[in-house]
Each structure stands twice: as C-alpha cells, then as structure tokens.
Amino acid sequence: MSTSKLTLSDPDSGRSVDLPVVRGTLGDPALDVAKINRDLGYFTFDPGFVSTCSTRSAITYIDGDKGVLLYRGYPIEQLAEQSNFLEIAYLLINGELPNPTQYHDFTEQVTHHTMIHESLKTFMNGFHYNAHPMAMMCGMVGSLAAFYHDSLDPDNPHHRMVTAIRLIAKMPTIAAACYKHMVGQPAVYPKNSLGYCSRFLDMMFSVPAEDYEVDPVAAKALDLLFILHADHEQNASTSTVRLVGSSGANPIACIAAGVAALWGPAHGGANEAVLEMLTEIGTKDQVGKAVARAKDKNDNFRLMGFGHRVYKNFDPRAKIISKMTHEVLNKLGIHDPLLEVAMALEEVALKDDYFVERKLYPNVDFYSGIIYKALNIPVEMFTVMFALGRTAGWIAHWLEQNAEGNVKIGRPRQIYTGSAHRDYVAMESR
Ligand code: CMC
C-alpha cells in the first residue's frame, strides 16, 4: 500500500512533522510541506522550483521521461491530427471537447470580439517603429486592461468567461497591429468572415492597396502550431499568470505579465533565438563548431531549442513540428537551407555524449521558426506567435485558479544573505 504521509524529524530539536502525501490522477506524488515552518522552524529551499508543485491542476499533464503531453487527458498527437485551435481553446477552458452547438457558439463569440477599441491605436502610435513586437505586446495587452470595466471581476463567473473570450479574440488583432506598426503599414481590421488563423494572416499581410488571399496551407500550419503552443502546465509564463492572478489583479493585466515572462530566451523567446543561431551557423559544415561551443563551460552559448526542464526525452511537440516542417515547406514549394542546418545540428547533438548524458533533446522551439519563416512571419514576431497560442492556456489556468475560489496569494520566502543588524552611520562619519 502506498504511504499517505512521510515523517520528517529534526534531530537537533527532537521535533518531527508529518508531511501528507498529495496524489493526482497521474504523475509523481508530492509532499505537502506547508506545516514545516510552523512545526519545525524550517523553510524549504528550491530555486527554480525543480521539485516544487505550486498548485493542483486538471488541465495539462506531462510525463517528461516518456515524452507524453495530454491536454485534458487527450494526447497531443491525436489533437494535432484531428482538432483545431479554437476547439482546443474550448477544451482547455471548459474541460471537455465541445459538441457541435457548443463549438459553433464558442466560435461565434470569439469572432464577435475580434475588434479592439480605437483608442488603442493611440497607445500603439507611442511606440517607435523599431520597438520589439514583444515589447509592444506587453504594453498593448497591459493597456487593454484599462478597458472593459463591465467584466473584470475575477469572482464573477460570467465576467471571467467574457474576459476569456475577449482575450482569445483580441490577441491576434493586437499582434497583427504590432507587426503593421513595425513595417509602417496601416493596421487591418479583422475580417470576421474568415476563420481564426486565416483572419490573423489577413491582418498581417493584406494591405488596402491590393487584393490578398490567405493560403489555406499557411492557415492550417499556423493552426497546428497554435495547438502545440496552447498549454504546457506550470511553465514560467503560466506560473506568472497564476502568481499575478493570486493577488486578485485585473485579469488582462495577468495575461500581460504572462507575455512578459514568455519573452525570455530560456522560454518562448527561444524560437527567435533558434533562427538567429541557425542563421549564424549558416552551413552544415559549421555545425560541429556550434556543438563544441555549446559544450564548452567557459562559453555561455547554448544550443537554442534544445533541452527542457521537464522533458528528459523527445518533446512530443518537437516530433510533430519536425515532421510538419518538411510537409509545409514541400507544400509551399520552399527550399530553406536552414532546415538542413537544423537537421544536421539535431543529428550531431543527439549522438553526442554531452547531450545524451544530460538528456537534452530538441524542444518545441527548435523547428517552429523554420515554419514561421516559411509563412513569411518575421523572426521578431516568432515569440508573439507563441503568445497567441499560449493565451488559451494562460486563460484556462487563470479561470481554473479563480473558479476554485479562496485564492491564496503566492508569496515565497527567501534565505536572507545580506548584512546582519547594523546601526546607521551619519554621512560625515562614513
Ligand atoms: N545547450 C547546452 N547545454 C545545455 C542546454 C543547451 N540548450 N540546456 C541545458 N544544458 C546543460 C546545462 O549546461 C546543464 O549542464 P551541467 O549539468 O553540466 O551544468 C544541464 O544541461 C542541465 O541544464 P539546466 O540549465 O540546469 O536545465 P534547466 O531545466 O534549468 O533549463 C532550459 C531548461 C530549457 C532553460 C535549458 O535547457 C535551455 O536553456 N535551453 C535552451 C533554451 C530553450 O530552448 N528554451 C526553450 C524551452 S522549451 C519552450 C518553452 O518553455 O518556452
């Protein structure tokens, strides 16, 4: 029989504490350490949260050793093959796949919230043309929090759902407007006759002066990438959304915080960094040098798109994207030499002892940039693409957190390493 508690004893004080074992439906159990400080006078210390569960959640499950990813129990491979992004957003938010009426209603609601307030244009115009689009996204999503006072109460289930729909609907409009600002073209209003991804591509690439038709291959590829990015349990940006949410903050501001956390190269910013790295490597014969640099502990260069905190096996999303990269490039008739560099890099790294011993495999970001590039999406926009997909997950987690009620504010402790008590010294005596 499996234990229901573990006892931790402190030989110095002779005191002990029973730590209840917390189990979920799948995955390793956890120890509930909440009473350690009260009963033993110790904190737990776990920088980077490598052994810490911050919450219970029923949304996404990852088995990092086996390379398994489930959204609400459904394997990512099946969802990628058979579903679409809006259905996935519904699934993540509501817990079940929609029936035809529910799917129709959800799509209708998202479609009717695609426009953004005209005043947001004023905010946008404050950015210089060369602002990074993720900087614009942080600012623009943050400024969206200044609107919609009718639906911002985290304790109100109706408000929560309206906010969720608004965010899923408006993020692509904001993202495309950021791109248009960058390239000095007028922002394009959302065309609600188009599907979710086609509408986004239309807002990105159509101009008032010319006709534009969305390539269905591009729309389908984008939809698949959004599915793969949609959620990944308690990653840095989702944990950020939950932490900000735990203070009862404006829900849209919580998502803006998620956008900021995603930007870093260790997280969503890796897709931009991968393409820069592949471009810098340039040709297959330079791959060996890059791998040598990544192994050199005196060089802070890392193979971007490689390694993962949770996956110690192939990232299942990377497997899907790698296959899809070849298909999409073939269908679009594109030959990208960077794909050859990426494949050579993967091959060398997967056979190298350094990567084998540390169980470093390609992650979701390794091949995604090559597809985005094939869709004409500029490299600075790659992390924005990730944010569009991940919005579904951020919102699902924020909803789950608030639906549970009695949200406890997230407030970690620290090991203080500063000066001990000392007395103030008057300036003339220093
Ligand atoms: N290249 C070279 N060495 C690496 C790499 C890499 N990409 N990733 C990890 N290592 C080494 C690291 O130096 C360490 O070696 P040692 O044990 O000798 O000190 C060991 O592997 C463990 O690495 P870690 O930094 O302790 O692992 P972590 O779980 O804290 O970091 C990671 C995970 C994803 C931040 C890291 O693997 C990394 O920086 N990868 C490159 C950036 C990247 O692709 N990020 C996207 C992650 S997936 C999408 C997402 O989350 O948004």
What does this structure look like?
The structure is a single chain. With 430 residues, the chain is mainly α. Helices cover 50% and strands 6% of the residues. It contains 18 helices and six strands. The protein has helices spanning 36-40, 76-82, 85-94, 100-111, 120-125, 133-144, 157-183, 196-205, 216-229, 236-245, 251-262, 270-281, 287-295, 316-332, 337-351, 353-357, 365-374, 382-404, and strands spanning 5-10, 15-22, 30-31, 60-63, 68-71, 74-75. The strands form two sheets. Strands 1-2-3 form a three-stranded antiparallel beta sheet. Strands 4-5-6 form a three-stranded antiparallel beta sheet. Helix 7 runs antiparallel to helix 18 (382-404). The structure holds carboxymethyl coenzyme *A. Carboxymethyl coenzyme *A (CMC) binds at residues 48, 235, 266-268, 270, 294, 302-309, 358, 360, 363-365.
Features:
430 residues, mainly alpha, three-stranded antiparallel β-sheet, 18 helices, 50% helix, binds carboxymethyl coenzyme *A
